[in-house]
Amino acid sequence: MIRQRRHPAATQRTTRLEAFTDGVFAIAATLLVLDLTSHSLGEVDSEGAMWAALWDMNELFVNFLLSFVLLCLMWMVHVQQFEHIARVDATMVWLNNVRLVFIVLVPFATGLTTEYSEWLAGRLAMPVTFFLAILVSWLQWGWAVRRRDVMLPDMGREEAIAYGRASLSALLISAGVVLLAPWIGSAAFLLFFLDGLLTRLLRGKGA
Q1: SS3 assignment for the chain
Q2: Fewer Cβ atoms within 10 A, N terminus or C terminus of the chain?
């Protein structure tokens, strides 16, 4: 188990929410591979044809890896947040459910971006889906901070706000990805390499 700081006041409801969320993330990440397994290589009659067919799948592999890595990062953020969240209420549960709607849409959106990248809607499918998932995650932590006395009893207000700046950084970057994707496609996701720098800047500004 990656969770090492289980809060002693965590309720069964909180634990079950975590378990459900873990399962949805795992299923979404697994479903991403279906686009790879269902893709036909066509007629292959030589080694060269085999390598050429695999090369033709390069966009499929790139988008698969992008979505898988981003799902992993979002799951890690979820894990880190729930190491501090002791209790959840109905609002927190439904915010989490809305976030999971976008998580389960990631395989579908990834497929659209791969197959229809020549169209604007296709290029935006992945970026918009991840933006909405990150937006809800940011709102979810904001709600926890708002009810910090109940949900985050081991964190001070300033610490909780500072802790959430990583989510704000991811939200700003994902918005940038949405803006750039119509012109450069999935290459816009390279902006996430700036996440660490932007997070440090936001924390410094809020200090």
Answers
A1: CCCCCCCCCCCHHHHHHHHHHHHHHHHHHHHCCHHHHCCCCCCCCCHHHHHHHHHCCHHHHHHHHHHHHHHHHHHHHHHHHHCCCCCCCHHHHHHHHHHHHHHHHHHHHHHHHHHCCCCHHHHHHHHHHHHHHHHHHHHHHHHHHHCHHHHCCCCCHHHHHHHCHHHHHHHHHHHHHHHHHHHHHHHHHHHHHHHHHHHHHHHHHHC
A2: N
